[in-house]
Structures are given as C-alpha cells and as structure tokens.
Amino acid sequence: xxxxxxxxxxxxxxxxxxxxxxxxxxxxxxxxxxxxxxxxxxxxxxxxxxxxxxxxxxxxxxxxxxxxxxxxxxxxxxxxxxxxxxxxxxxxxxxxxxxxxxxxxxxxxxxxxxxxxxxxxxxxxxxxxxxxxxxxxxxxxxx
Length: 143
What we know:
Elements: E1 3-8, H1 15-28, E2 33-39, H2 41-48, H3 56-64, E3 71-75, H4 81-87, E4 91-95, H5 100-112, E5 116-120, H6 128-137
Parallel strand pairs: 1-2, 1-4, 2-3, 4-5
C-alpha cells in the first residue's frame, strides 16, 4: 500500500492545489492513502516574512474537506522532512516550483526510508501569490 505525503500552505485554495491532491491520490492508488501536511502559520512567517491570510485552523479545515485527502496533519516546519521522518511515507510529492536542492534532499531522505520523490508540474496560472497580486492590483470601482 502506498502512503503518499503532499504538503501545502493552502492560503488561497485554487485549482492547482486540487490538481496536485488529485494526482497525489491517484499515485497512492485505490488502496493507498494520501496524507496532506498543512504548513503552520509560524513556519510560513519564518519562510515568507508575513502570515497567511487564512489562519492555520481555517486552512486545516479546508484541507480536511477535500475529498482526495485521507488524513490532514499539521506541518510545523516549512520543510516536510520532519513529518516525513515521522510518518515514513512511501512517496513524497514535490512541486517543480520548489528549490532543486530541497528536492534532491528529499530524494536522499526518501531513499533512506525506502521510498521515492515524485515531482509534479507547477501550475503557473494557478498561484496563491499571483491571485493575491491580482486582487491588490485590481482597479477600484465605486458604486
């Protein structure tokens, strides 16, 4: 049975997140499990310098409502590696948007656990950062 671990900030949920989870669940297979990690507010602040718009509890609840996730867990670090060491999934999902050094470190970790990393395409048109930018750049209208 495949245990797949995939992780997200999930600040503004969009189709890219759903496609990643759907593909991750498909890779897990019919009898497999998809475990979704949601990055903590503190880890996001440390990594990005500002908090997510949605609170951790809101993001966790949203993730739990997505049908592809079998289990949703807190991810206290921006890196998935502490959770991966504890959960020991057979597959760690990564995005091509992540740093190559991080992906390679994930490969080494997963090999040591007898698993592997699968790198999924990044859906450039579906980005929380891009959506936030579009919202703030939109011209203001009155009336």
